Amino acid sequence: MTIMVVDDEKSIRLSLTMALKSLSVEVLSAENGMTAIQNVRNQTIDLVILDINLPDIDGIEVLRQIKQIDRACTVIMMTHLSEVKLAVEAMKLGAYDYYTKPFSIEEMLSSLKQMDAYLKDRQRLQSNAEAEAIIGESLAMEQIKTKIEKVTRVQFFTCVLITGESGTGKERVAKQIHRKFSADRPYIAINCAAIPKHLQESELFGHEQGAFSDAKHTRTGLFELAKDGILFLDEIGDMDLDLQAKLLRVLQERVFRRIGGNVEIPFNALVVAATNKNLLQEIERARFRKDLYYRLNIIPIEIPPLRERREDIPKLVQYFVRNYNDLLGKSVVSIPEEMMHLFERYNWPGNIRELKNIIERLMILSDSETLSLEELPYELINEEAISSRNELSHLEQAEQEVVLRALSKHQWNITKAAEALGISRLTLRRKIDKYGIDSRP
Question: Where is the Response regulatory domain (predicted)?
Fold first, then answer.
C-alpha cells in the first residue's frame, strides 16, 4: 500500500510520514498540489491524505484532478474546523473522509488500519474483475477481443469508436483497450453528457490563469492529462456541436491550446469514443458532424446486445456470482437450472447492467448456497405470461407456469423440482396447494 501526504506545513508532513511508516506502508509526501498531481500521474498511489489549503492549487481542485487521473485512488481531506463545509463539498466530489485539524495521530492510525484492510479487499476484487475483463466466448465477443489485440499493437495514436446499446459494456471494452495498450499509462475518462456546456472546453483543454474571471489558477485539461495514454470520450453523441469542431481540429492536427494560452501543446493519446446513439442518424438530424464521425470511426467496435449473444449468459452469471460472493462474504455455489433457463430466454432490455443488478439483488437476499427463484423480478419470470392477463395476477400466472414446468420436467419428484427452483420442499408444497396443482395433470 502506498500513501501520499500532501501539506505545505513541513512539521505535519514529517509527523504523519513517521507515524504512517509504523503501518509498514510506503509513504510519499508533497508540499503543493502540482507535485501531488504529478506523483499520482507517475505511479500508483492507493491513498492520499490531502490538505484543503495549499499554496498553489486549492485542495478541492487537486482532489478533482486526482480522481480524473485515477478514480480508484482514495483521498482523505485535512481541514480546519472553519472549513468543514469545503470538506463536505470534497466528499461529494469523491473524497472518502476528512480529518479536522488538530487531530490525534493515534486516531488517524487506527482508522487507517481499517482503511488498509478495505483497500486490500477492493484491490483483490478489482484484480479478479480485470482477469476476465471481456466476458463471453460467443463469436461476436471473440471478434471484439481480436480487434482489441490488433488496435493495441499499433505504434501510433489512432481513434476507436465503440457503439452499442446502454448497458452492453462499452466502458469495459475501453478499459480493456487501456490494459492491453499499457496499464501504466494514463486512462482519462470524460462523460460528454454530464459536463455543462460552459465548462466543456475548459474541462478538455484546460485554461491559463486569468483567462476568464474565475480562472484563479492555471488548470490542466483532460487532453493534457491523457498524454501517451488513453482519452475515453463516453457519450460522444451528446457533445456540443461547437466543441465537436474543436475536437476534430485536435484529432487532425494533434495539437491544442489551453484557453487563454498561446503555446501549442502536442496531443499524444489514443482516443476511444463511445455512444449508444446511431451517429449516422444524428448526422442526418444535424446533431453530429459527419467529418468528426469519420475521424473517430477509424477502428469501429460494435458490441451486440445481450439478447443476441445468449450463449454468454451462463458465463456472465457465474462471473457476477463469484464477485458478489467475495464482496458480500457469501458462499453461493448453485444456480437453479430453472433460473438459468429464464435468464437465457429473457430479452434483457438493460443488457449486462440489468443482469448484474439482478444478480446483486439475488445475492444480497440469499441466505443459502443456492439462489432463490422467488426473488426474481416478475417481468423476468415469464414474459409471455405477463403479456396475457388471466384471472390470476401477472406474477401468479408466471409463477404457476414455472412451478408446473419444473414438476413436469422432474416427473413430479418434489425434492428434485424444489432443488431446480432453488426453494425448499415445504415452499414448493405451499405453491402446489396455492395453485391447486396437487395431482399430476
Answer: 2-116
CATH code, domain carrying 285: 3.40.50.300
**Block residue for cell numbers 465548462:** 199
| DSSP annotation of 305 | P
The verdict on residue 379 lying in a domain is yes
CA–CA gap between residue 373 and residue 40 (Å, rounded): 46
Tell me the C-alpha distance between 191 and 213, whole Å.
Answer: 25
| Block residue for cell numbers 475521424 | 295
Start-to-end CA distance of the chain, whole Å, equals 64
Beta carbons of 338 and 377 less than 8 angstroms apart: no
pLDDT, residue 267, reads: 93
Contact at 8 Å (CB) between 244 and 283? Answer: no
C-alpha cell at 366: 440469499
Number of domains present in the structure of the chain: 3
* Secondary structure of residue 213 in the 3-state scheme: coil
Torsion angle defined by CA atoms of residues 420, 424, 430 and 432, in that order, rounded to the nearest 10 degrees: 20
Q: Average pLDDT in the 8-13 region?
A: 89
Task: Give residue 147's identity as a one-letter amino acid code.
Answer: K
- DSSP 8-state assignment for residue 161: E
Helix (H, G, I), strand (E, B) or coil at 44: coil
pLDDT attached to residue 336: 87
Mapping DSSP to helix (H, G, I), strand (E, B) and coil, where does residue 197 land? Answer: helix
Question: Of 281, 304, 327, which marks where a domain is finished?
Answer: 304
Whether residue 35 contacts residue 45, with contact meaning beta carbons closer than 8 Å, is answered with no
Q: What is the pTM of this model?
A: 0.62
CB atoms near residue 304 (< 10 Å): 19
Extended strands (E) in 203-356: 206-207, 219-220, 230-234, 255-256, 265-266, 270-275, 299-302
Q: Answer whether 325's CB lies under 8 Å from 331's CB.
A: yes
The answer to whether the beta carbons of residues 167 and 352 sit under 8 Å apart is yes
Q: Is the distance from CB of 337 to CB of 374 less than 8 angstroms?
A: no
With vertex at residue 345, the alpha carbon angle to CA 164 and CA 162, rounded to the nearest 5 degrees, is 10
pLDDT at 386 over 50: no
The distance of Cα 178 from the centroid of its chain, to the nearest Å, equals 14
Residues 220 and 312 in one domain: no
